[in-house]
Amino acid sequence: VEQRDLTRFFLSSCICMGEEIWLDSRTVYIGHKEPPPGAEAYIPQRYPDNRIVSSKYTSWNFIPKNLFEQFRRIANFYFLAIFLVQLIIDTPTSPVTSGLPLFFVITVTAIKQGYEDWLRHKADCSINECPVDVVQQGKVVRTQSHKLRVGDIVMVREDETFPCDLILLSSSRHDGTCYVTTASLDGESSHKTYYAVQDTVAFRTEREVDSLHATIECEQPQPDLYKFVGRINIYKDREEPLARPLGAENLLLRGATLKNTQHIYAVAVYTGMETKMALNYQSKSQKRSAVEKTSGQRHVVSSFNLRLKDTVLTASVKNHLLSNSTSLVCLPFLLQVIRAFTDFLAFMVLFNYIIPVSMYVTVEMQKFLGSYFITWDEEMFDEELGEGALVNTSDLNEELGQVEYVFTDKTGTLTENNMEFIECCVDGNVYIPHAICNGQILTCHCICKMKVCLCRQEHEDLFFRALCLCHTVQVKEEETVDGIKRGIHQGRPTSFYISSSPDEVALVEGMKRLGYTYLRLKDNYMEILNKDDEIERFELLHVLNFDSVRRRMSVIVRSSSGECLLFCKGADSSIFPRVVSGKVEQVKARVEQNAVEGLRTLCVAYRRLSESEYKEARRHLNEAQLALQDREQRLAQAYDTIEKDFVLLGATAVEDRLQEKAADTIESLHKAGMKVWVLTGDKMETAAATCYASKLFRRSTQILELTKKRTEEQSLHDVLFELSRTVLRQRSISGYEIIHCLDFGLIIDGATLSAILKSKQEGAGPGNYREIFLEIGRNCSAVLCCRMAPLQKAQIVKLIKASKEHPITLAIGDGANDVSMILEAHVGIGIMGKEGRQAARNSDYAIPKFKHLKKMLLVHGHYYYIRIAELVQYFFYKNVCFIFPQFLYQFFCGFSQQPLYDTAYLTLYNISFTSLPILLYSLVEQHITTERLKRDPSLYKSNSLLRWPVFIYWTCLGVFDAVVFFFGAYFLFDNTTFTSNGQMFGNWTFGTLVFTVLVFTVTLKLALDTHHWTWINHFVIWGSLLFYVIFSLLWGGIIWPFLNYQRMYYVFMQMLSSGPAWLSIILLITVSLLPDVIKKVLCRAVCPTATERAQVPSLHQFQLSCYQVGGLFSSFDSCFAKIVNQLLLSHFKSRAFWQKVESTPMLADISYFYCRKPNE
């Protein structure tokens, strides 16, 4: 009957359109054998081969596809349009000036992307051509991986990687299990156990496996690594097939490695690009930094508007003058329009250089090269892991310097995720391993009871047996892992426990210390050694796996006496509602006490099942497990039906210690002006204790609770408005009076958050609950969100991102449940923790420990933002200086579109003469020392350079310098000027003079802004100026045969031979730089910023200098040295101190010599 229902399901899910057949599930014929006649309809399906393709291009589509992708960028398309305009019409500059830089950028990018794709091609070939063993006609045949097909039976040996997604049929182990590591998929290095269906375990040889007659029905490929729904139909002598369920525990994923198993036989179900690993290749959505989106648009739009105004103004003036000319009166109107339009394009080309293509190249190089400073940072290297920080994307470097909200996980992020069993409670009696009782240290087989009353022996034994049986722990014998032998004790091999969950290992090891030892799982029987050294065997009937919704797991076992027992462990919120008897109040009190102390708690319960109850439970489980549609929902319903009417046994307490320097890191983030939100799935008391320990909450913090318990007593509306009034009232009081403001901390749980988020969707409530919640959260220094599901974590981050302030958010976590919020935040950081590497793989940056976040934000992020802001604004400044004299020149050349600068200067200004100094500045500049940034986190808040006032200042400074360049040279050479040999200065000499002043001024301006000087700075800055001089001498000193003109011949030498020209260059450079120098001096003296104050040597450093002064003079006159020391120290804080120093020649020399930076 079930088989007929399945056939009807397939027929109803088929949509026939011509020859196309669409199925929402697939049928795999093992060994390509058709089912027996009359068993089911044979539906042949075509599947892709096992070829992996990670490359992007092929040899024939590389050029067109790459060019299409590059010119999709608006910047490249714009410069292409300018280049085409120069080719089509007569423009004042050569097309080479725009075409050469664009060709260079496009070529370099194409070579880079082509090389990266060639490497991917090589990797694909090595994977697709690796050998694979396939069972054909009872023999093992070796073939290449890309030739595998769905339905092939594959033989995999120990330490080999699975070539595709396989369903395990049998293994060299008698119980049909195998051990697998999935480190290449999710980073988890622990061994996982996979199972074969019991009906195929007996097929252990090639001939036996080849004789297997079965089909597999499963879902279509989907990327979830931990989900698989299917069933296997085994055909034997009888007509009806034997159906068995298949789940994720039967599916061996491509990329995983077989361990501690000689060999296995498995059948291919997903191949090639349909494997789960290949489906996870899909790149996540590209993140763009706020600096790139806002500042880049601001600079490009402003530059474009400025150039457009210049173009329209110049073209209008020219056409106005020419319209009065008699030579143009007789021209038709259409020709005049065409003439005006071509002039507009010509001037547009002439002023094009204000937005140079080299700026985009420089920014990309700065981001790419700057990211290496994170990976090279030795302070962010972890000796225990043997790894340092990783940068998965360099596009968000500057975003690290503008973070306003930090969302962090608790377990494994703030804590070590290294669990240690502390105690357990059975019916109110507390058991502590190796405790001191009556003055004696008890051994592991002794139990110290902290209460007077004794619980029944039966409940004790059931509690300890429950923890020894209700888990998925593996027992491993002696093994070599990374060259280290584990499981060796006193020269004899012993066992140790491995599990994907550290909690389970801690509980099993804790039971071992209390006298109950879990031995092994053998032939579906679990063996434990009780405190009387007797081995007990329990048949494992069913495992009800843990999930984040139920927050519990259960096992059904049968004892040696034939009694069926259901053991369950889970969170208190999921166990207590299902308990019908037991000492609930005593256990609940102990659980709450442990939670307050920051311990992780689990409750343990059991239920005896009669034979009829067990058969009913087995029926529910089998029906759910065999379902191909909605299996997870059906399993959840079956679990809910079975897990009820519990008898409470007790609870456990496990400690997860706080990570090293986690509290110091959170305190520094608070001082830096960031708001830290902890998002965790733990219960409120445990999470709150961790928040106090990590200094997220202080003892003076007033805690505001927005929890389900409170909303049950009051309505959600009343609670929200009461908290809002409390916060806003305190803010209004602190606004009028200078008092110590109360520090608020908010605690919210998942149920209340769901109600808040749901209110806007349903339109319920008199007010917008989201806005009220955001207002409360914004006025709290820290927020704790407990009992959070992974999706709710992402919803919290998205809610803050979408608020009216649009703050920059950062999410940090270590587990798969943190991936959603990491992808949602502006910046995602993964921690290389013990819960796998899913978070690190999906993040933008990865760090070994939470403490490294401090330096990543306060130092690297601060530097990145300052550097990129200076780079972008300096580029705009130097191009305003470059192009504005060209605009002014048009008023003196009859609007003839005559360029002021030579073509070579136009081309090389942004490529060679001025690009390297700013690139190096943006890589190595340190306006404040690293130690000062770590010591004073408040300096992080001073990162606000990309603002309109700063932008306007740079623009005005560029216009002022351009006016000084042009009119300074114009008025100094108003009259005809002769050189020593009687030659006159022409327009190219005038333009070269302006250009020389321009290059020296913008380069020296950068030198004045540099605080951290190294030999590389000196080499690049002075080397760039020297390169310009040498190039000009060669360019004007040689007659180049490939040029149609020789207008620059001897111009530069002629200019340098004139004494007035030298004087003019020096004078104009000084006048151009003087206003910026005066502005900086006045600002530092009158109203210095926090950054400028931090650049002044501290009192302690000055005292050390004073002691050095005393030491210097001690050999001459110790009394005089003491007088100098006392004079300097006593007047250091005095306003008149520096006046005294300057008025005293000796003290002035001393202060200058000893108050310098150490490296000077």
Automatic annotation (TrEMBL):
<feature type="transmembrane region" description="Helical">
    <location>
        <begin position="904"/>
        <end position="924"/>
    </location>
</feature>
<dbReference type="Pfam" id="PF16212">
    <property type="entry name" value="PhoLip_ATPase_C"/>
</dbReference>
<feature type="binding site">
    <location>
        <position position="410"/>
    </location>
    <ligand>
        <name>ATP</name>
    </ligand>
</feature>
<dbReference type="InterPro" id="IPR032631">
    <property type="entry name" value="P-type_ATPase_N"/>
</dbReference>
<dbReference type="InterPro" id="IPR059000">
    <property type="entry name" value="ATPase_P-type_domA"/>
</dbReference>
<feature type="domain" description="P-type ATPase A">
    <location>
        <begin position="131"/>
        <end position="275"/>
    </location>
</feature>
<dbReference type="InterPro" id="IPR044492">
    <property type="entry name" value="P_typ_ATPase_HD_dom"/>
</dbReference>
<feature type="transmembrane region" description="Helical">
    <location>
        <begin position="1019"/>
        <end position="1043"/>
    </location>
</feature>
<dbReference type="InterPro" id="IPR023298">
    <property type="entry name" value="ATPase_P-typ_TM_dom_sf"/>
</dbReference>
<keyword id="KW-0597">Phosphoprotein</keyword>
<comment type="subunit">
    <text>Component of a P4-ATPase flippase complex which consists of a catalytic alpha subunit ATP11A and an accessory beta subunit TMEM30A.</text>
</comment>
<feature type="transmembrane region" description="Helical">
    <location>
        <begin position="945"/>
        <end position="973"/>
    </location>
</feature>
<keyword id="KW-0460">Magnesium</keyword>
<feature type="transmembrane region" description="Helical">
    <location>
        <begin position="874"/>
        <end position="892"/>
    </location>
</feature>
<feature type="binding site">
    <location>
        <position position="409"/>
    </location>
    <ligand>
        <name>Mg(2+)</name>
    </ligand>
</feature>
<dbReference type="Pfam" id="PF00122">
    <property type="entry name" value="E1-E2_ATPase"/>
</dbReference>
<dbReference type="InterPro" id="IPR018303">
    <property type="entry name" value="ATPase_P-typ_P_site"/>
</dbReference>
<keyword id="KW-0547">Nucleotide-binding</keyword>
<feature type="binding site">
    <location>
        <position position="411"/>
    </location>
    <ligand>
        <name>Mg(2+)</name>
    </ligand>
</feature>
<dbReference type="InterPro" id="IPR023299">
    <property type="entry name" value="ATPase_P-typ_cyto_dom_N"/>
</dbReference>
<feature type="domain" description="P-type ATPase C-terminal">
    <location>
        <begin position="840"/>
        <end position="1089"/>
    </location>
</feature>
<feature type="transmembrane region" description="Helical">
    <location>
        <begin position="985"/>
        <end position="1007"/>
    </location>
</feature>
<feature type="binding site">
    <location>
        <position position="818"/>
    </location>
    <ligand>
        <name>Mg(2+)</name>
    </ligand>
</feature>
<dbReference type="GO" id="GO:0016887">
    <property type="term" value="F:ATP hydrolysis activity"/>
</dbReference>
<feature type="binding site">
    <location>
        <position position="600"/>
    </location>
    <ligand>
        <name>ATP</name>
    </ligand>
</feature>
<feature type="binding site">
    <location>
        <position position="569"/>
    </location>
    <ligand>
        <name>ATP</name>
    </ligand>
</feature>
<dbReference type="GO" id="GO:0000287">
    <property type="term" value="F:magnesium ion binding"/>
</dbReference>
<keyword id="KW-0445">Lipid transport</keyword>
<dbReference type="GO" id="GO:0005789">
    <property type="term" value="C:endoplasmic reticulum membrane"/>
</dbReference>
<feature type="domain" description="P-type ATPase N-terminal">
    <location>
        <begin position="44"/>
        <end position="98"/>
    </location>
</feature>
<keyword id="KW-0812">Transmembrane</keyword>
<feature type="binding site">
    <location>
        <position position="793"/>
    </location>
    <ligand>
        <name>ATP</name>
    </ligand>
</feature>
<dbReference type="Pfam" id="PF13246">
    <property type="entry name" value="Cation_ATPase"/>
</dbReference>
<keyword id="KW-0967">Endosome</keyword>
<dbReference type="InterPro" id="IPR032630">
    <property type="entry name" value="P_typ_ATPase_c"/>
</dbReference>
<comment type="similarity">
    <text>Belongs to the cation transport ATPase (P-type) (TC 3.A.3) family. Type IV subfamily.</text>
</comment>
<feature type="binding site">
    <location>
        <position position="411"/>
    </location>
    <ligand>
        <name>ATP</name>
    </ligand>
</feature>
<dbReference type="GO" id="GO:0045332">
    <property type="term" value="P:phospholipid translocation"/>
</dbReference>
<feature type="active site" description="4-aspartylphosphate intermediate">
    <location>
        <position position="409"/>
    </location>
</feature>
<feature type="binding site">
    <location>
        <position position="817"/>
    </location>
    <ligand>
        <name>ATP</name>
    </ligand>
</feature>
<dbReference type="InterPro" id="IPR001757">
    <property type="entry name" value="P_typ_ATPase"/>
</dbReference>
<feature type="binding site">
    <location>
        <position position="814"/>
    </location>
    <ligand>
        <name>Mg(2+)</name>
    </ligand>
</feature>
